[in-house]
Structure formats: structure tokens, C-alpha cells
Design brief:
Distance between the termini of chain A: 34 Å
Low-confidence stretches of chain B: 1-16, 94-98
CATH superfamily of chain A: P-loop containing nucleotide triphosphate hydrolases
CATH architecture of chain A: 3-Layer(aba) Sandwich
Number of domains of chain B: 1
Helix content of chain B: 10-25%
Structural class of chain A: alpha/beta
CATH topology of chain A: Rossmann fold
Shape of chain B: globular
Mean pLDDT of chain B: 84
Strand order of the largest sheet of chain A: 6-9-10-3-11-12
Helix content of chain A: 25-40%
Mean pLDDT of chain A: 93
Number of helices of chain A: 9
Largest interface: A-B, 36 and 25 residues
Distance between the termini of chain B: 14 Å
Shape of chain A: globular
Oligomer: heterodimer
Strand content of chain A: 25-35%
CATH class of chain A: Alpha Beta
């Protein structure tokens, strides 16, 4: 098992958002987490990545045999957990090449590997940016500054390609994308798929899941997973909407 | 909760150590505290000065006693008891003719990374090492002398090149310029003197390293640089001081005279002891630095990285008198804990087609206050003058302040001035984003500050840029979240 979430409760500013999440993800699996707005999807990804604004009040998370919640956000990354942000953050003045080089070398240091040489790094960077069709101006641009919505999301997947995580969480990666950008981003994610890495795709809509095909689909509602099924659930949700789920859980 | 956590990160990161805080145990000749005409005469006598220089000092002293303490800066300055400071301190046996320097001094400068022994000298850089009030050693003098370049302590220059010193001393910064300039002119101790003859391109970086060691003393150094027609020199200044609980006063003057088509680059990495994290101790620094672009097409470039001192009051300026002369000012001022800085520049356009450029980057962390103060003045004869100013502030944490006081005074309708300013803050989301990619908070702050200051650090000579980067890194250590 790659990730095991047991009875996870979390709050922000004293307000409970996650109310007992249970979820298991095996190696090589793609899980979709769907649900209406405000159900806690983004909170779940933020909590897994260790965002300091959230407080875990109960439960545990085991990631690759380790107690994830006891690990610092940077070490979670170095352990192989990657979050593709719904709203990627701009860092003016810091070039993508410096940013990514710092990140890659921190990961290598954690694994007791030597830092990557500049030439090798540029070679890898070129190869990985091509996965999401970003051109060579990327290196010198400041992190996400002046990027279009589509470029920001492609940049997230580029970083995922560079860091080769064992678990990637794609938080609403489809939001704000036109159909071409959606295709580039999804194809990028699919190219990075290996038998030993896993993906959590968080989304409202079916359209992303037409490209990134999930093995398991969960519906999150009011901080709990209220339904888990195979990929056929996507079509059912698309057809019936979330009201159907709400009725099923007795509202 | 969120707030507390962030504050904790901020304080953790800002807790850094000052690594130059040691003291050297050398015999020091210190005169009793206090200032009056007798003290001024005593200093002059100790330095065996000619009458004209004593007269200069006395005029300055008499002016100083009539001047009020300046209070216009955005600084909270505790009262300074000028009668409780010793105005002269010199390590004994410092500059023997036999070239024997006290091994303790050599050792001190070694610890600071400034080897003074012949065989270990820094390559490509001549150094004048100044401890307390006196120059300890100047390296590479003979090599420079072959080109006619004079690089020595100002005390020696007074003895050996009195006409040059007399001609230019006080010609850029008059003794009556301001309170601290008057004080410096009365009691100035050592500093460096540089003269680059006509048409000479100085082949190495000239550098002065200032070190305060003695307790209860002030440091009043004076630097004079003269670049004759068609010459070029790049000059560096570095400074450190021991960690002490009391505050020490540093009031320096730097004068630069640039003649026709000459070019001077003056770079400073200022790292005086900033005080501890509770704001105890540290250097009070009141400095007047000015360049006079006297000749046509002359150029001056000021670059400063200011990370030290409890209080910084400093506005390196350019008087652009020669037609087509150029003045540029690049500054990074970093304040942390309880440090206060009020710094910037003055660009005075007097000649025709004069150009100036100001790039100021202020970084405030902890509970510090950081102000940019600038004056761009265009005189009525300065046809075609141009200025570009850019002032950016970066805030780290929630308890610090950044302030900007730009003043523009234009008396010629053909002038073109541009001003850009920005204030940004390192926020929690940026740090979390970096963390999520495996970059620690401390390294993330380093990256962001590095990006913010890049444009200025790139202006420093290579060796210095590396040192400045390290210094910023150290100052940030223990700094944000």
C-alpha cells in the first residue's frame, strides 16, 4: 500500500472540514476524488502536503510505511509526495531554473546523491519541459509570474516530471484550462505514468477523466468519502449530478 | 494558530549569529574620553600633522559645536553622549618600518579572511587594513607605485603627498556639510587615500578593510579618492566589529573626485555588528559619502550591500557637475531584529546631458525599520538631464517596516525623470509552495532574497559578489517563515 488514510479529521481556523476520511491507494493506481464545491477536496490535498494553515485533529496517514503527519512539508516532498496546485503561486525574481535546481538537488541530497551538474540539469529540464510543450524561455522566467492559466498548469506538470514523485495529487488541474491545454496537461500526466507511481486526481468534471482514466472513483461530500466505485461512477455522476449523492446520504 | 506558527518560523529563521564578533587582545593606545579643542590638537599631534590640517580640524570642530543633531531621518536614535567616547585608538607597534606587524593583528585579519603577509596576499586585490583609528598594513603598494598609483593610509598621504591631500580634502564634502561630517573633519583618524594618475587604468581592485576593535571608542575614518583624467579604478570597502553590549559610533566621510572621462566604481559590503536579537549593542553608523563628477563624461558607480549596524544613516551621492557625466547607485539594505536603516542617495545634476540611475532594494525582517531616502535634483543649467529611479522593498514577517522618501527637485524643463517603486512581502503561500517542492523555508527565503537582490549583486566585483551573497545568506539564517 502506498498511502493509507485512516479516520482523518482536519480543521482550519477552528472549523472542521475533514470529518473522518478513509482511503487506501496502492502502487500504480489512479484514484479520482470528485465532489461538489466545499466538500473538502482541496483541504484533503493541502493536509496531505502539510500546509501549515490546517490542523489535523484526529486520524493517521501512512505513506510508504511512514507516519506522514509527523514529517515536515519539505520532507514529504522529498519522500515522493507531489501536489499540483489549483492556484500555482508566483515567486517574482526567482527563475524557474534556479527554483527547480534547488528543488531537484534537495531531493537528491535527501537520497544521499550528489547534486546534479549544471549541464546534466539543463539536459533533463529540456527533456521534461517538452512533456508539456513548454519552450526554452521557461528557464529564465520567474516562477509562475506572468504565466497564463494554461502555462501555470503545464508548469506544475513539468515540475512533477522533474521530481518523479511516487504519489502525485492533481488538485483541480483542469480548472481554467481550454480544451487544448487540457489535452497537453493530461497527456503529460499520462506520459509520466509508471507501474509504481500513483495519482490522485481531484476534479469536479468528467472531462479530465476522459483523458486520465481512473481505476477507482471516490465521492467526497461534507468531509467524508460517501461513495467509492469503479470508473463507471464518473459517467453516472455526470448524468445525474451530485444531488443524487446528496439524496443517497439522506439530505 | 496560523499566526503563531508563522511568527515562530520568522523568529527562528531570524536568529542568526554574527561570526565576526571576536575581539583581539592587542595593546591599544586609547586617549581619554571626551572632545574639546585640546583633544583635536592631541589627535593632530599624534599624527604629526602640518599646521594647515590642524587648522582644518579646528575650523570643523568650532563649526560642529554650533550645529544641532540632525533629527529628520526615520530613525529612533538614543541619545549619544559625545563626551563619553574616545576619539582616538590605535594598536601599538602597528606599522613598523621594518614591516613587522604585531602577529595578533595579522591573525585578526586572517580570521576575517584578509591575509596581510606578502606570500598570502589576495591576488588581484590590494588591501589597506584599518584597525580602530589606524591603518595597519597596505599590500601591493610597490606594484601600484610603478604605475604611479598612490594607495596608502590617509595619514601617510598627509606626510608624503601633502599638496594632493590639501587640494582635495574637504572639496567634495565640506566640513560644514552636516553634523557628522563636521565631527569627522575635526577628529578623523585613518582611512585610505587613492590617487590614480592621468590615463591609468588601475590593474587591480583596491580595497580597505575597516575593523573596530577597541572598546568605548568611535571610528572616524576618512577616505579620499582622486581619479585624474581618463583613469579608472574599482575600490572596495568592507567592515566588521566585535560583539559588544554597548553601542559604538562610526562617523565616516568618503570623498571621490572624478576628473575628465575618468571612472570610479566604489563598492561597499558593510557588516558592522548589528546588535543582538533584542536590539542590545551594535554600531551607530552616520556616514557621508559623496562623489564629485567634476570632469566632462566622468562616471561614478556606487554599489552598497548594507547588512550590519544597529543604525545606518547613509546617502552616497553624486554631484554631476561635468557635462555628460554619469552617476549610478545600486543598493541592497538588509535589516533584521531591531536594526534601523535610513539610506539612499542624492543625485545632483548640474552639467548638461548628465545621467543618473538609482536601484535600491530594501529588505526588512524581524522588528526592523528600513527606509529609502533619495534626492534627485536637476539644476537650471542641466539641460537634457535624465534620471531613472527604482525602489523596491521586500518585507519578511509582520513586524517590520519599509518606507520610501523620494524627493525630486527639478529646475530645468528639459529634464526627464522616471520613478518606479514596489513593495512585496514573502508570504506563507510562497514558502509553502517552495516547501512542497522540497525546498526548506530557510532556503526558500534565500532564493527569494537572492532573486530580489540579483540586479544589485551583479554590479559587485566577482569576489565581492560571492562574499555579499554569503553574507546575505548568513544574515537571513535563522530569518523567516
Amino acid at each position: 500500500m502506498l498511502l493509507e488514510i485512516k479516520d482523518l479529521h482536519a480543521e482550519i481556523d477552528g472549523k472542521e472540514i475533514l470529518r473522518g476520511i478513509n482511503l487506501c491507494i496502492g502502487r500504480g493506481e489512479v484514484h479520482a476524488i470528485m465532489g461538489p464545491n466545499g466538500s473538502g477536496k482541496s483541504t484533503l490535498s493541502a493536509v496531505l502536503a502539510g500546509h501549515p494553515a490546517y490542523r489535523v485533529t484526529q486520524g493517521e496517514v501512512i505513506f510508504q510505511g511512514k507516519d506522514l503527519l509527523a514529517i515536515s512539508p519539505e520532507d514529504r516532498s522529498r519522500e515522493g509526495l507531489f501536489l499540483s496546485f489549483q492556484y500555482p503561486i508566483e515567486i517574482p525574481g526567482v527563475s524557474m531554473v534556479n527554483f527547480m535546481r534547488a528543488a531537484v538537488n534537495e531531493h537528491r541530497k535527501y537520497r544521499q546523491q550528489e547534486p546534479m551538474s549544471a549541464t546534466e540539469f539543463l539536459r533533463v529540464m529540456k527533456q521534461k519541459r517538452e512533456v508539456v510543450q513548454l519552450d526554452n524561455s521557461l528557464a529564465s522566467r520567474s516562477v509562475n509570474e506572468g504565466f497564463s492559466g494554461g502555462e501555470k498548469k503545464r508548469n506544475e506538470i513539468f515540475q512533477m516530471a522533474m521530481l518523479e514523485p511516487s504519489l502525485s495529487i492533481l488538485d483541480e488541474t483542469d480548472s481554467g484550462l481550454d480544451i487544448d491545454a487540457l489535452r497537453i496537461v493530461s497527456e503529460g500526466v499520462n506520459k509520466l505514468k509508471r507501474p509504481d507511481n500513483s495519482t490522485i486526481v481531484i476534479t469536479h468534471y468528467q472531462r479530465l477523466l476522459d483523458y486520465i482514466v481512473p481505476d477507482v472513483v471516490h465521492v467526497l461530500y461534507k468531509g467524508r468519502i460517501v461513495r467509492t466505485a469503479g470508473r463507471e461512477l464518473v459517467a453516472e455522476l455526470e448524468e445525474k449530478g451530485y444531488d443524487w449523492i446528496k439524496q443517497e446520504v439522506g439530505e | 494558530m496560523k499566526q503563531q506558527k508563522q511568527n515562530k518560523l520568522v523568529t527562528d529563521l531570524l536568529d542568526s549569529d554574527y561570526k565576526y564578533g571576536f575581539t583581539t587582545d592587542v595593546q591599544t593606545d586609547v586617549i581619554p574620553v571626551g572632545i574639546n579643542e585640546e583633544v583635536v590638537r592631541l589627535i593632530s599631534a599624534k599624527k604629526n600633522e602640518p599646521q594647515w590640517l590642524l587648522d582644518f580640524r579646528l575650523r570643523a570642530y568650532r563649526k560642529w559645536v554650533t550645529m544641532p543633531l540632525p533629527t529628520w531621518a526615520h530613525l529612533n536614535i538614543p541619545p549619544i553622549d559625545f563626551q563619553n567616547i574616545s576619539y582616538y585608538a590605535a594598536p601599538r607597534k602597528h606599522r613598523d618600518d621594518s614591516r613587522q606587524i604585531d602577529p595578533e593583528l595579522v591573525d585578526t585579519f586572517n580570521k576575517l579572511g584578509i591575509p596581510l603577509e606578502e606570500q598570502k596576499r589576495l591576488s588581484g586585490m590590494a588591501v589597506d587594513a584599518v584597525m580602530d583609528s589606524t591603518s595597519v598594513k597596505t599590500t601591493y603598494r610597490e606594484d601600484l607605485a610603478k604605475l604611479g598609483v598612490i594607495f596608502c593610509s590617509i595619514g601617510e598621504a598627509v606626510q608624503h603627498y601633502p599638496e594632493l591631500v590639501r587640494k582635495y580634502l574637504g572639496s567634495v564634502v565640506s566640513y560644514a556639510d552636516n553634523f557628522y561630517a563636521a565631527l569627522n573633519s575635526a577628529v578623523f583618524s585613518d582611512g585610505s587615500f587613492v590617487y590614480i594618475p592621468k590615463g591609468v587604468r588601475c590593474p587591480m581592485e583596491l580595497s580597505t578593510y575597516f575593523r573596530i576593535n577597541a572598546m568605548g571608542t568611535g571610528q572616524f575614518e576618512r577616505t579620499l579618492i582622486v581619479a585624474d583624467d581618463d583613469s579608472y579604478v574599482s575600490y572596495l570597502e568592507g567592515c566588521t566589529a566585535p560583539m559588544r553590549d554597548e553601542n559604538q559610533l562610526h562617523a565616516a566621510i568618503v570623498e571621490i573626485v572624478v576628473l575628465d572621462r575618468a571612472e570610479v566604481k566604489y563598492s561597499t559590503v558593510q557588516n558592522w555588528y548589528p546588535g543582538d536579537k533584542n536590539g542590545k549593542g551594535g554600531i551607530y553608523k552616520f556616514v557621508t559619502k559623496r562623489a564629485l563628477c567634476q570632469g566632462e563624461s566622468s562616471k561614478v558607480f556606487w554599489t552598497q550591500v548594507e547588512t550590519g549596524s544597529a543604525i545606518t544613516w547613509k546617502y552616497p551621492g553624486c554631484v554631476l557637475k561635468g557635462d555628460n557625466s554619469v552617476g549610478e547607485f545600486y543598493s541592497v539594505a538588509f535589516t533584521n531584529n531591531y536594526q534601523q536603516a535610513d539610506t539612499g542617495t542624492k543625485m545632483i545634476h548640474l552639467g548638461k546631458n548628465t545621467r543618473s540611475r538609482i536601484v535600491s532594494k530594501g529588505i526588512s525582517a524581524g522588528r526592523s525599520q528600513n527606509a529609502y531616502r533619495g534626492l534627485v535634483k536637476v539644476g537650471k543649467n542641466a539641460d537634457g538631464a535624465r534620471n531613472f529611479s527604482q525602489c523596491d522593498s521586500l518585507l519578511i514577517g509582520k513586524q517590520c517596516g519599509a518606507h520610501t522618501f523620494p524627493v525630486i527637485d527639478v529646475q530645468n524643463p528639459t529634464a526627464v525623470l522616471e520613478h518606479e517603486a514596489s513593495t512585496s512581502k514573502i508570504n506563507e503561500d510562497q514558502l509553502f509552495y517552495c516547501n512542497q517542492r522540497g525546498i526548506s523555508t530557510e532556503d526558500a527565503v534565500g532564493l527569494i532574497v537572492g532573486g530580489f537582490t540579483k540586479e544589485v549583486l551583479n554590479k559587485l566585483p566577482m569576489e565581492f559578489a560571492v562574499e555579499a551573497q554569503k553574507l546575505l545568506q548568513i544574515s537571513l539564517e535563522g530569518s523567516v517563515g
